[in-house]
Design a protein that fits this description.
Blueprint lengths: L16 E7 L4 E2 L1 E2 L2 E2 L1 E4 L2 H9 L7 E7 L1
Antiparallel strand pairs: 1-2, 1-5, 1-6, 3-4
Length: 67
């Protein structure tokens, strides 16, 4: 995972995060057809866990960026 989400909410409006599944073997993002798989989430930890479910952590990681 690239960026670290905040440990707890700050009381302000929740931040939106962009997450991409990255293939460690190639360094490239996972694609669905010609589109890069991108997930938008308010809680990136939960979204990342769901994206990695059933995948080998040796082969995949999630890149996170705040928007």
């Amino acid at each position: 995972m690239t960026a670290r989400p905040p440990a707890s909410p700050t009381g302000s409006a929740p931040r939106i995060w962009s997450l991409r599944l990255i293939d460690r073997r190639t360094g490239r993002p996972h694609r669905c057809g010609d589109a890069i798989l991108t997930v938008l989430a308010r809680d990136p930890r939960i979204a990342a866990a769901e994206m990695l479910e059933g995948r080998s952590l040796r082969d995949w990681h999630v890149e996170m960026q705040p928007l």
